[in-house]
Amino acid sequence: MSFTSKIQQLLALLNSCSSLKHLFQIHAQIIISGLSQHNCIVLKIINFFASHTPINSSSYAGFVIKQSHNSSNSWWNILIRRYATCHKSSYTEAIRFFVEMRRVGAVSDEFTYPFLFKACSSFLGLEEGKQVHCDVIKIGVCNNVYVQNTLIHFYGSCKKIVDAYKMFDEMSPRTVVSWNSIISACVESCWYYDGVEIFRVMRKCGVQPDETTMVVLLSACAELGDLSLGKWIHGQVIEQGMFVNCQLATSLVNMYAKCGAVDYARLMFDRIGERNVWTWSAMILGLAQHGFAAQALELFWKMKDCSVKPNYVSFLGVLCACSHVGMVEEGHRLFQEMESVYRIKPMVAHYGAMVDILSRAGRLEEAYKFIVHMPIEADAVIWRTLLSACHIHDISDYTRVGEEVRSRLLRMEPKRSGNLVMVANKYAGNGLWEKAAKLKRDMKERRLKKIAGESCVSVFQNP
Q1: Which of 60, 126, 228, 322 has its CA 20 to 30 Å from the CA of residue 253?
Q2: Is residue 55 part of a domain?
């Protein structure tokens, strides 16, 4: 067999390779054939590691690259990039590849570090990221704008906003990605108004924002419920003449819906040419949360008619809608459909919505059994939902569900004054004055005070 034919045969075998065991066998043939240094063959092996994500294979990958006698770090960068951007179980493997890369003497560069910081951000590896940051300083690429941008994102993801801002402050020059990274870091850490203030500074510096900037800012407005600020950001989008893509349009729908301006949200939704599942879900949830249950359900059916597969947010919205209109059986059917038809595993919020459906309908014993048999532990919010329903539908506690829920809630959160006040008021309402007085004495002895109610008024001001 000729040299070229042998290479083609080995490449064909590598193309058909489907397991790590199979790869070892083929690689043995490559070594016997004396082709372990051939670049095309090494690249195929590297691509196998990159596409099949065999965990804990960094040492073997190091062996393959070392045998190739190619000191280039490009092979390593391919692997690190792949593992840093694929399934969450492989993020730490990107770090292992980096360690192996340094162990065999390969030199990292400015293309290595952005993906390492991305991997550290993904699994919140603060200590690992700091060590990589030290390495960045050692080899002298700390002034590379791409490395700096990913460092800001990394520290922001780990909620180290001061460190993220220090990195940003030391940057020169800054790109729009740099500004987006620090604004996003603030918003993700709930420093919403700080993010908006940085945007104002960005505009004063003459930097043109892009669609990503506006998406991040709109998410901050949605979390704050600040409609006037959200309208100002929308005005900036119009003023800049930005193309309103699907992601930006969805953010606008979400912002208006969460700020209570459901009419504006629906107007935006109806004008969107391209909608994805997140656009539909934002509108459905917005309608459901503000009492437009019938419209939310109608939109959910319309979404399915348009062949858009619902996601976990869609189901949360539609379950919330069922709760408001008392559609218990329909709500239960949709809850079952989540996992059986769409393979969406219910989260705590979905179980909470189902408990709310049963509780509002006065089916207290059924709601209690549902909570007890949940595959995940119910949080205090779910128990409080049922307890509130007991105070409405079973004032005298004939079912004894209320007493059981009260005892569970007090064991779960013994220091939460709101729970004690709720229970004491219930006892007082039923004429159980001694029990109510005892709870209030306990609160006084433990220096627990009732948290005062709060309300806020938005005074118009020009952002």
Answers
A1: 322
A2: yes
DSSP single-letter state for residue 89: G
Q: Tell me the pLDDT band of 56, cut-offs 50, 70 and 90.
A: low
pTM score of the predicted model: 0.81
Give how far Cα 217 sits from Cα of 182, 234, 261, Å.
12, 10, 17
* Other Cβ atoms within 10 Å of 241 Cβ, number: 6
What are the C-alpha distances in Å from 184 to residues 326, 384, 400, 416? 39, 34, 49, 33
- pLDDT tens digit string along 409-452? 878 877 677 767 777 777 777 677 777 777 677 777 677 666 66
Q: How far is CA 32 from CA 16, 22, 23, 43, 402, in A?
A: 20, 16, 14, 18, 75
Residue with tokens 């940051």: 133
Lowest mean pLDDT: which of 38-52, 252-266, 315-329, 368-382? Answer: 38-52
- CA-wise closest residue to 288 among 308, 311, 262: 262
3-state secondary structure at position 345: coil
Say if 242 falls within a structural domain. no
425-457 burial, b at 16+ Cβ within 10 Å, e below that, comes to ebbeeeeeeeebeebbeebeeeebeeeeeeeee
Amino acid in the structure at residue 112:
T
List the domain range (segments joined by +) for residue 72: 1-142
Dihedral of the CA atoms 339, 341, 344, 348 (nearest 10)? -40
Find where tokens 């948290």 sit: 451
Q: Which two tokens stand for residue 39?
A: 């670049």
Question: What number of other Cβ atoms are within 10 A of residue 191's Cβ?
Answer: 19
Q: Residue 116: what residue type?
A: L
Side chain identity, residue 41: I
CA distance 304 to 281: 12
Domain membership of residue 237 (yes or no) is: no
**pLDDT attached to residue 350:** 96
Q: How many CA atoms lie within 13 A of 48 on its CB side?
A: 27
CA atoms of 109 and 5, how far apart (whole Å)? 36
Please give the structure tokens belonging to residue 191: 């420093």
Q: How far apart are CA 363 and CA 401, in angstroms?
A: 11
Q: For 241, phi and psi rounded to 5 degrees?
A: 65, 35
| Residue 40 falls inside a structural domain | yes
Separation of first and last alpha carbons in the chain: 76
Give the chain's domain count. 1
**Cβ atoms of 318 and 284 closer than 8 Å:** yes
